[in-house]
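Input sequence (181 aa), recorded before submission:
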Amino acid sequence: MITLRQIFRTAILAAFRVNVELEESVVNRLQCGRVIVVANHVSLLDGVLVALASPVPLMFGVDPDYARHSRLAMAGMRALARMGFGDVVPLDRSSPYSMRTLSHRLNRDEAVMLFPEGAIGTGAAPLPERPGVAWLSQRTGAPIFYVQIRGAEQSRLFAKAGKRWWPAITLTFGRHLEPVR
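Predicted structure, token format:
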């Protein structure tokens, strides 16, 4: 039976011209829980697209300013959470609460999602990764799965340096790394 959630997911991904590349082995691993999903960060759409494309709900670590001060972002995140696409925790550097929350979720065999660059880049070249993902993997023993986002960096509406109004976007769920030791 097709649910309203599936219809919404399909409609939004189609509207944003998103192609999702997701192998069965990746789906199986994500469904087992305790995994850190990370992706390059190239546009404001990235989190929404990953949430919709993921076969499991994810706990997202997000910029505290975005999570607490943007009414549109807050409403969108609440709506996605209510529909079962995941939840968010603001990543505040001045408080250990957020990393503790992510750690607890992983220890309950749930999946979390982080953008290890910590900010939206201006193009295809990645920004330096911050140490939080490695620390979380080491602390919880959770493996890291990568999602590569291609095309969203070209969006005039959602990226920093985009030149196309409605570019095709590809999300590739793939490369798996063992926990950092």
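Checked by second reader. The beta strands are 18-22, 35-39, 58-62, 86-90, 111-114, 144-150, 169-177.
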